[in-house]
């Protein structure tokens, strides 16, 4: 079992930096970011950013990922999942990327991590390299990007918590026998 | 005099309507078709990779390797027939018409692919708040069973359950929906008036 990958983002410190030197602006930003919903939204956007960058083939320093090995390119999995040699995005089934989520929100910070140990272990192999796997470190987000996302979140979501909470009600899956029904309306993201 | 910073939202009711519209658009039928296709691909590719599900009755089954093929069946798939007579003599011969395996099929791999017809018969139907996957009930080329009958619990799924979404696969779909909702909301919220 690999070590848990975690990214802890200090929302209060980021809000201060985003506000600049103006103390009143700092207070306003910190106050706006004090709600759990808006902090969670900010964190979710950071997750989206990391995954979008990864899907574009870039690591946390915006450098291109190491190419896939010849053996992997020739594998059945590579063919079945319709991957192309030039598209290194750490995505085969999508399971690893779907496991990235907000794992903690507290008064000062938010933490990104993996909700599934197996997927955490896969990611750990990419981030640190393992056996013949080269390092493809996608796990990170620069402070500059964090500040940009935080500012955008404040612009978008100040005073809108009521609507965001409603979003959580879209959830539930029912799986039938020969017919599979997937009803997003009742899905429980537990 | 120090500048007073404040975030002020105007036109809240109009904004709420816009957000509701964006949410409705995101879960509308055409978008559900995308999710249905994604779900079909997920099942298709998992099975072609040799995996089924642990239990058809579980709400969130786990991924499980499909039961391996018998040695005799592997030989048949590679065009060899082998059986013992009543006298105990082993008879072997090559088939004139060797089975033409479907896409990603191989003689020794258990991935529910002999001709490939059954997995290619997975179809989709979008609904307002979700979608449905089903196996087409058309008669197969050999004229014996329909694809849906073959895939049923009486045949293929008795030994090799596959037609369900695992817990991880459900998470993949949900995350995709969640991301789309966030994108739609950002578009709407980006248009609002903030002073």
Description:
The complex is a heterodimer of chains A (190) and B (195). Chain A is an alpha+beta fold and 190 residues long. Chain A is 46% helix and 14% strand. Chain A is built from nine helices and five strands. Chain A has helices at 11-19, 23-32, 36-55, 70-74, 76-80, 95-98, 117-128, 143-157, 161-167; strands at 7-10, 100-105, 109-114, 172-174, 180-186. Chain A has a three-stranded antiparallel sheet. Chain A has a two-stranded antiparallel sheet with strand order 4-5. In chain A, a hairpin with a 5-residue loop joins strand 4 and strand 5. Chain B is α+β, with helices and mostly antiparallel strands and 195 residues long. In chain B, the strands form three sheets. Chain B has a two-stranded antiparallel ribbon. A two-stranded antiparallel sheet of chain B has the order 3-4. In chain B, strand 5 and strand 6 (130-135) form a beta hairpin. The model of chain B is unreliable at 1-9 (pLDDT under 50). Chains A and B meet through helix 2, helix 3, helix 5, helix 6 and helix 8 of A and helix 1, helix 2, strand 6 and helix 7 of B.
Supply the key terms.
heterodimer; A: 190 residues; alpha+beta; 3-stranded antiparallel beta sheet; two-stranded antiparallel sheet; 46% helix; elongated; B: 195 residues; two-stranded antiparallel ribbon; 7 helices; disordered N terminus
How do you describe this structure in short?
The complex is a heterodimer of chains A (190) and B (195). Chain A is α+β, with helices and mostly antiparallel strands and 190 residues long.
Beta-strand residue fraction of chain A: 5-15%
Q: Counting H and I runs of at least 4 residues, what is the number of helices of chain B?
A: 7
Distance between the termini of chain A: 23 Å
Biggest interface between chains? A-B, 50 and 59 residues
Biggest sheet details of chain B: 2 strands, antiparallel
Helix content range of chain B: 40-55%
The average pLDDT of chain B is 86
